[in-house]
Specification:
Order of helices and strands: HHHEEH
Number of strands: 2
Distance between the termini: 63 Å
Strand content: 5-15%
Shape: elongated
Radius of gyration: 19 Å
Helix content: 40-55%
Largest sheet: 2 strands, antiparallel
Structural class: alpha+beta
Number of helices: 4
Strand order of the largest sheet: 1-2
Length: about 110
Amino acid sequence: MSSFRWLVGKLNFLQHTRPDISFAVQYLSLQCPQIPYMLAAIHVIRYLMGCPDQDTRRSVTGFICFLGASPVSWKWKKQPTIFLSFAEAKYRAFRKVLLTILFFTSLACRHPPA
């Protein structure tokens, strides 16, 4: 069933702008091409056709900050605006990460370990 792999590949591409289908697409991408999984992939397509207003063309960015091996801050969200270039979107995301790191650095400076 090469059509199953083709469909899952297209859905995999779509999940970058539609994070609401990420779990289903990742699950389908791990499955063997069988009839029940093809029907599930078609169900995802029907879902996408039923709610086209979810596609905003805004980038989804995220970051996670670690202190040693432990995560201390994380955030995933859609960008507030549609950026005209990939570089601008990455610049805005980097700015948010930098502000978070500066915030945690200021906390460490105010409260030194005892």
